[in-house]
Design brief:
With 367 residues, the chain is an alpha/beta fold. The chain contains 17 helices and 15 strands. Helix 3 crosses helix 16, helix 5 runs parallel beside helix 6 and helix 9 crosses helix 17.
Length: 367
């Protein structure tokens, strides 16, 4: 049987959930949560649907939720409402007697999928031939466990959108150059803010298997993996320019996963946490156009009615893979757990975990 056929078979939700009302599903979730008590922990990423996030014991970004899972030693079962790489990180940080469950295996991340371990190892061979032992690999936490392990194996580390600048600074104390995976935009924006010129950056194309640059290769300091977030890449300078013309008093705040020209044109840019805190602390009456995932933008608009909050892209859709976890998948996972079945447990092998934790710890141990 082909993998796709297997996934389709696994993901076929029992028909009974189609006949249940929303209230019945919510009641069952609350009932199971009460039954398991501290043995059950549900972390929910900021980009999840409201119908799911209402049941989260904690909300946050991917690494924050993985760390909270690590700290919650009472939890035997961690039902992670996020995407696959987040559940992997939670599994690698938690104890062996804790079980991480992803309600829908198809809840992945297109950005993480843009850098496979096979592509990365092939690229590393070529880059070593070009530059020798002068490159340090860094990976955004929005990457697979295998890519984190690759960075750990070669002396590199993980980064978040909050600490990317600190980690890139650290990387340059270790080696002359760095390879930044898998999001070219976060890498470019961070390096630029640290004074690296755009002409000192080149893009590695994993499909064409080559370095894209018209500059002398010896001048390249930052090699950016040709990957991106399918949500954040849809924000454009044209959207900002139109907004400036029509609503000059509106403040534009975007995520650093957006293209460089968008980040440069915006009033402010920063991590999801930074965006939330900035809007939370802003003066009542402030008008914001936000360049990040739509579920979060809508939630912010509801939570802070004293502000006017909207998406920078009026035609933006929620993250399709993050949006796969819905009420049906959550209640299905929990009812199976109640029956004693681990529904889509996420397990990372011991070797990968050991090397990936090196990359994570190099980041977490930075002052």
């Amino acid at each position: 049987m082909k993998l796709l056929d297997q996934l389709n078979q696994v993901e076929r939700i029992p028909e009974k959930y189609a006949s249940m009302t929303k209230e019945e599903k919510e009641s069952r979730i609350l009932e199971i949560k009460e039954k398991f008590g501290k043995r059950l922990y549900i972390p929910g990423h900021h980009y999840q649907r409201d119908e799911v996030i209402q049941f989260a014991d904690s909300t946050g970004d991917s690494l924050q939720l993985a760390q909270l899972s690590q700290d919650n030693t009472d939890a035997e079962f961690i039902v992670f409402c996020g995407v696959h790489f987040m559940a992997e990180t939670a599994d690698m940080l938690t104890k062996d007697n804790q079980h991480v469950i992803l309600p829908d295996l198809k809840a992945g991340c297109s950005m993480a999928d843009m850098a496979t371990i096979e592509q990365t190892e092939r690229a590393w061979v070529v880059l070593q031939e070009l530059y020798g032992d002068s490159i340090l690999p860094l990976t955004y936490v929005n990457s697979t466990a295998a890519i984190k392990a690759f960075c750990g194996r070669y002396g590199g580390a993980t980064v978040t959108s909050s600490n990317a600048m600190k980690m890139v600074e650290w990387a340059f104390t270790q080696k002359e150059r760095l390879l930044f995976l898998p999001d070219q935009h976060l890498g470019r924006n961070t390096a630029f803010d640290l004074g690296v010129k755009l002409e000192e950056m080149a893009v590695w194309d994993p499909i064409a298997h080559k370095l894209e640059t018209d500059k002398p290769i010896e001048d390249i300091k930052v090699i950016l993996w040709k990957g991106h977030c399918s949500v954040h890449e849809k924000f454009t300078v044209e959207q900002i320019n139109q907004l400036r013309e029509e609503e000059p008093d509106t403040k534009v705040i975007v995520h650093p996963e957006c293209p460089h020209e968008v980040v440069e044109r915006a009033d402010l840019n920063g991590s999801t946490h930074y965006i939330i805190e900035t809007i939370k602390k802003s003066v009542p009456g402030t008008v914001w156009a936000v360049g990040t995932e739509m579920n979060l933008v809508k939630r912010l608009a509801t939570q802070y009615p004293e502000q006017t909050i909207k998406s920078l892209n009026p035609n933006m859709c929620p993250c399709l893979t993050m949006n796969r976890i819905d009420l049906d998948h959550l209640v299905w996972s929990l009812e199976l757990l109640e029956e004693g079945t681990l529904h889509h447990p996420i397990r990372v092998d011991e070797k990968t975990t050991k090397e990936a934790r090196l990359a994570l710890e190099r980041m977490l141990n930075r002052p």
